[in-house]
Amino acid sequence: MLFVTQRISIPLAEIQLDAVRSSGAGGQNVNKTSTAVQLRFDIAASSLPEDVKARLLALSDQRITGDGVVVLRAQEERSQERNRQAALARLSQLVRSVAVPPRKRKATRPTLGSKRRRLEQKKQRSAIKASRRRTSGWDGG
């Protein structure tokens, strides 16, 4: 069981973990051991609450495919177990980021003081620009 928050947990049966070969530097060890871990998690088929699923699917995250599958790859560590833990931690962090619904925006009105300050700044700016205009007696050279 992967515990995300106090009320949200993901059974490990819903998470597919595959060991794959790491890319990059690492000498001969990289060519013979599969230390990188690729995690796949189908959002729609999961046991997550419906509101969390909807917010997760609404994310514009490149780690979520068009089919609604989260694909994470962990290869920073030299051990497969540590990469597995890192991938699970990233999934947990991703779900935790959408676990709390966003607050509704409360409509507010500008204060009287802010309106007056805005109009005063407009008057000052207008006066600056008016002073740059040509005068009638100026001949240009």
Output the keywords.
3-stranded antiparallel β-sheet; 38% helix; alpha+beta
What is this entry, summarized?
The protein contains four helices and five strands; from the N terminus they run E-E-E-H-E-H-E-H-H. The chain has 141 residues and is an alpha+beta fold. The chain has a domain at 2-99: 2-Layer Sandwich (Double Stranded RNA Binding Domain).
Account of the protein in words:
With 141 residues, the chain is α+β, with helices and mostly antiparallel strands. It has a domain at 2-99: Double Stranded RNA Binding Domain (2-Layer Sandwich), CATH 3.30.160. 38% of the residues lie in helices and 16% in strands. The protein contains 4 helices and 5 strands; from the N terminus they run βββαβαβαα. The protein has helices at 29-32, 50-58, 80-99, 112-132, and strands at 2-3, 9-10, 15-20, 36-42, 69-74. It has a 3-stranded antiparallel sheet, with helices on one face. A hairpin with a 5-residue loop joins β1 and β2. The longest helix is centred in the C-terminal third of the chain and has 21 residues, at 112-132. The relative contact order is 0.15. The mean pLDDT is 82.
